[in-house]
Amino acid sequence: MRAFYHPDQALHDPQQYMRFGKVVAPKDLPERTERLLGALRKHGITPEQPAAHGTEPVLAIHDAGFVKFLETAWARWQDLPAERGPEVWPSTFPYWSGRPDEDVRPPCRPTGFIGQLGWYLGDLSVPIGEHCWHSTLRSSETAVSSADAILAGERAVYSLCRPSGHHARADRATGFCYLNNTAIAAQRLRSQFGKVAILDVDAHHGDGTQQIFYRRNDVLTISVHADPTNYYPFFTGYADERGNGPGEGFNLNLPLAHGAGGAAMEAAVAEAGKAIRDFGAEVVVIALGYDAHKDDPIGVLKLEASDFGTIGRQVKGFGLPTLVVQEGGYAIEAIGDCLDAFLGEFK
Fold first, then answer.
1. Can you give the residue range of the structural domain that contains 71?
2. Which one is catalytic: 6, 167, 205, 293?
């Protein structure tokens, strides 16, 4: 099994995160990558460094104004008064209708930096520091190079992406995510495969991925996650969200009750597998997060590390070329064991 990772992804080192009305230490620590690299070494896998693809694959998914904002945000932050905080952080959030028949919001009307902050950064979990854009671009390039390996004939590739991506919408960063690596990889695979399936297994709904493909019938999006009625991202991830227009019937959400464990996850992945087969998928992208582990500091599910081995066995049973894209997981002591278990049954 091949894998890709760029060491510059670890340069992203957020300093602040808002939780329960209080600024607390961030959860997406650079140390996460070291634990995952350790699990790869245990299986004799040495990640390759991705090629420098630049923003062209990114712009196949993301709005150009949004990408330019991310690229220039840190430099523009330096022009603000000296009392500014240590990172780019928004202070206003504009209303959006949430209409599913809109692929993207209208262009951002404010040209001033503060107004654009509230438009392009969707919450207080996506601070932008000095190295954020650099790491984010490298993370997207990791996904693109992994997709290219599948296009070249590999049957299984692991993409160690950090920052994660599944909350990033076409024109908005949110939930620790800036660019949607999973969606960028899936779009890249569409250059050769007629039908691509995405299975997102994470404590949180893959709301960005859903939004990006919600009106399309060539990419099936499935998300297994914790019930969002009282859990992030709150406003999406419900079972009645089935797609819109041409995409009607090509989005499947499988929310799990808070406290659910391995048996519930296994059943949901089995249901997802049936949908993938019925769709006639030619390739599958697995957006894999470990924040469903029982020890995750922001999780509400109760999976053991061994349960990720069950997921790996189920995914292998799909019998399709498979690109695994790393998403969440913040229990530093557990995430290596989760990946180890997954690979033990999958590769």
1. 2-346
2. 167
